[in-house]
Amino acid sequence: MPRYSLYIFDLDGTVYRGDEPIPYAAETICTLKAQGAQIGYLTNNSGQTREFFLAKLRRMGFPAELNEIYTSGVGCASYLIASELRSVFVVGEPGLVAGLRDHGLEVVNAGEDGRVMPDGGPSEAVVVGICRQFTYDIMNGAMQRIRSGQAFVATNPDTTYPMEQGRLVPGAGSVLAGIQACSETEPYVVGKPNPFLIDLMLQEFGCVASEALVVGDRLDTDIESGRRAGCPTHLVLTGVTHHAPVGQAFSEDLRGLL
Q1: What is the distance between the alpha carbons of residues 29 and 146, in angstroms, rounded to a whole number?
Q2: Which CATH number applies to 6-44+192-257?
Q3: Among all residues, which ones are annotated catalytic?
Q4: Taking residues 94-117, what's their average pLDDT?
């Protein structure tokens, strides 16, 4: 029997780096699932849809179902709906736009292809995620709406995320920092380290915090979100963090969970 009833895994740096699965990750998660554990995947990455991550995980040999995958984009949609905010100006990728639209939200500044533009119709909120098409004009569009009093929601604060060969590339937090600076407004950040998504997962998996292990490679987001949710945590040294602080459960890779 597994030690925990639910294992919540971060993606980037924990189960894969870019398009490369991390050694032993798929085998470990398959073993845990075969032993009867529930498996959840939680990523701060808002650039792609749940369907994208499902296909990617399965291609790499991970056992995954659509309802086991949670993204910061899904979290933003849940938060906006709960806050009764239905129309949004988005700074983000087509995957974020698609995810918001799938939940019935109106994205006022994107075409059918999901690419965001600097201008659009009236909105109630600004949502900021990773945006590889980020421009000064898009930043200005977001700033003007936030300064006019619209809600300011961010997918996550990650300034970087890991890729193949140990490389790092700019994350959503880098885009967010610019918009936050010019708007002089603090956003509500849905993704980790906020426990918002972990709390949602606990509810939907029917699990209490003490029975769910949060596993990740970043102390400031993955581990911190688990701590705030009241869950036990486990750090793997396969991504951003290479040294564990005293008292933190850790292992060199996911085999340490078995």
Answers
A1: 42
A2: 3.40.50.1000
A3: 10, 12
A4: 96
